[in-house]
Specification:
three-stranded antiparallel sheet
Amino acid sequence: MRYTVSAASTGTLRFNETDRVASILQNITMILSTRKGSVPLYRDFGLPMDFVDRPAPVARVMMISAVREAVEEWEPRATVLGVTFDQSAEQAGKLIPVVEVEISSE
């Protein structure tokens, strides 16, 4: 089944989430909204900020690659099908990734 997750949809954080799908989607949201190097003991968790202050077309390509790699590493139960960006936020100079994922049945 396909789901869409945005970095802007942080909502309420629930520790020890019992619903498998909600847990996976919450994990992906946390990956998207965490700066790499900011989590003690898990310095590789999150997204690198190499794309900050780059021209928008360059930043988009760099962010798509970073999102795919981070989700693949930190949430192996999901497969990234595509990465787009919130168009309304882009006008304000922000790139907010919206990720379409498929959750494996295992």
